[in-house]
Design a protein that fits this description.
The chain is built from 8 helices and 28 strands. With 410 residues, the chain is α/β, with parallel strands linked by helices. The chain has 3 domains: 1-120 and 256-317, FAD/NAD(P)-binding domain (3-Layer(bba) Sandwich), CATH 3.50.50; 122-254, FAD/NAD(P)-binding domain; 320-410, Immunoglobulin-like, CATH 2.60.40. Strands 1, 2, 5, 6, 7, 8 and 20 form a 7-stranded mixed sheet that branches. It has a 5-stranded parallel sheet with strand order 11-18-12-13-14. α1 (12-23) runs parallel beside α8 (303-314). The longest helix is centred in the N-terminal third of the chain and has 13 residues, at 60-72. It binds flavin-adenine dinucleotide. Flavin-adenine dinucleotide (FAD) binds at residues 8-14, 31-34, 39-41, 44, 83-84, 115-118, 120, 139-140, 143, 164-165, 168, 256, 259, 262, 294-296, 300, 303, 306.
Length: 410
């Protein structure tokens, strides 16, 4: 088993990467642990996907299907029900071990594209104490039960976390007949897109409680109550503010973490700001030949950009050795991607994604190469939940010493 490219993960990032690599004439294998391609989109049956790429509001399965249909026209091979457990680099390329229905298999490739998506933070990850009763789900698990298996996770629901997934689940469970008692958010501002606050909460009269969190759960076999507390400005529960709310289901939408076990096993350095790999403009990590894209690279809010990063990763085969220059971030930026520039590779259309570190008004983003400003853009408002995308011409940076991206007051 020998391929030019192996893509791990058959979600939107992996599908886009595989199609693009095939277009370039490479022998490609996609390894996916689930029974079907499409990644998390299979269970996202609401619309809003593909507005940037197709100019249409598609559901998750419809968006995925456009790529799966295209993939079927290519020579790309797929291995479903296959879980990559180990990856190793040698002089002969990359050696992957995966477990599938036929047992344990090995495959070799020249380039490895990691498109493994995210996993969700759980109850243990945010230290919710109390009984070990049934009825506590991550939002993804609850979404899978309702949308894929047709099973309701509960009748009276508390949702913790006001990111987009929490908001969408609040609406979904209401539409299916549950009562959503409220969405609770530890931060003083909601984490999801403004349009989702309106379309998922306001339109359905679902209350949003800011600066409050769930600290404990109660229930012998099934969840019966949760304890809610006010939090201080550091999001720590304030003693004496405890109140109990009756419910039989707690849905946790408290964050996604890029899935990077394989990257770690290949000693790929990870950025503490994104929890994904440090990459250059071709989505190539700091380990030559290993690429990362989609939510495995950083948590995206639009699937269109997930597909875009898959395509960038597929096109990123270097023709010679790389020379990497740091791209530094300064000011009020939470993160930037890419964090490196390969000055030996084309750099006239560098796609950069960034998020602001807090809610900000009247900001100016500047990009400078050795002190000379090469890009500026003004923003009236920036919100951390809304990822921004810019395209930079860094073609003149070939001999530069320093590139800085800075966000500051106008
Ligand atoms: C629970 C949940 C709900 C979401 N809901 C929305 C939403 O409503 N709207 C929205 O715009 N975005 C939503 N997102 C964001 C969504 O994840 C992205 O838009 C997009 O699907 C990310 O694509 P991806 O290909 O990077 O990852 P994924 O779609 O997560 O695909 C990754 C794939 O990699 C596979 N994989 C991982 N590790 C291995 C391994 N070791 N071996 C083999 N296969 C592996 C997984 O099985 C999966 O199929 C949601 C995310 C989550 C986690």
């Amino acid at each position: 088993m020998d391929f030019d490219v192996v893509v791990v993960g058959g979600g939107p990032a992996g599908l886009a990467a595989a199609i693009k690599a095939d277009e370039r004439g490479e022998r490609v294998l996609v390894i996916e642990r689930e029974a079907r391609l499409g990644g998390i989109l299979k269970q996202c049956i609401h619309d809003g996907f593909g507005v940037v790429r197709f100019g249409e509001k598609l559901s998750g399965p419809e968006y995925a299907d456009r790529f799966i249909s295209q993939l079927k026209q290519t020579k790309v091979q797929t291995s479903l029900f296959s879980f990559v457990t180990h990856a190793e680099k040698s002089e002969k390329g990359f050696h992957l071990t995966y477990v599938c229905k036929d047992g344990v298999k090995n495959v070799r490739c020249n380039r490895l594209i990691l498109a493994t998506g995210c996993r969700e933070r759980t109850r243990n990850g945010i230290f919710i104490h109390g009984d070990r009763c049934a009825g506590v789900y991550t939002a993804g698990a609850a979404q899978n039960l309702v949308n894929m298996l047709g099973v309701m996770p509960g009748k009276k629901v508390v949702i913790l976390g006001s990111g987009d997934i929490g908001l969408i689940m609040a609406r979904r469970l209401t539409l299916e007949g549950a009562t959503v008692v409220g969405v609770y958010e530890a931060k003083p501002t909601p984490s999801g897109l403004t349009r989702n606050i309106h379309q998922c909460l306001h339109d359905f009269d679902i209350p949003l409680h800011l600066s409050q969190t769930v600290t404990r759960v109660f229930g012998e076999e099934r969840l019966q109550e949760v304890e809610i507390c006010d939090v201080d400005d550091k999001m720590r529960p304030i003693a004496g503010t405890e109140q109990r709310v009756q419910c039989d289901c707690l849905v946790l939408a408290v964050g996604l973490i890029p899935e990077n076990e394989l990257a770690r096993s290949l000693t790929v350095p990870l950025d503490p700001c994104t929890k994904g790999a440090f990459v250059d403009q071709n989505c190539q990590t700091l380990v030559d030949g290993v690429f990362a894209c989609g939510n495995a690279l950083h948590v995206n809010d639009l699937v269109d950009y997930v597909s875009e990063s898959g395509e960038i990763a597929a096109c990123g085969a270097a023709s010679g050795p790389r020379k990497l220059l740091n791209i530094d971030k300064e000011g009020k930026l939470l993160y930037i991607v890419p964090q490196r520039l390969d000055v030996n590779a084309p750099a006239d259309k560098v796609v950069m994604y960034f998020r602001a570190s807090e809610e900000l008004q009247n900001q100016c983003l500047t990009v400078s190469v050795d002190g000379e400003t090469v890009f500026t853009k003004n923003y009236r408002r920036l919100l951390p939940p809304e990822m921004e995308r810019i395209v930079l011409d860094l073609g003149k940076a070939a001999t530069a010493q320093r590139i800085v991206v800075r966000l500051e007051d106008k």
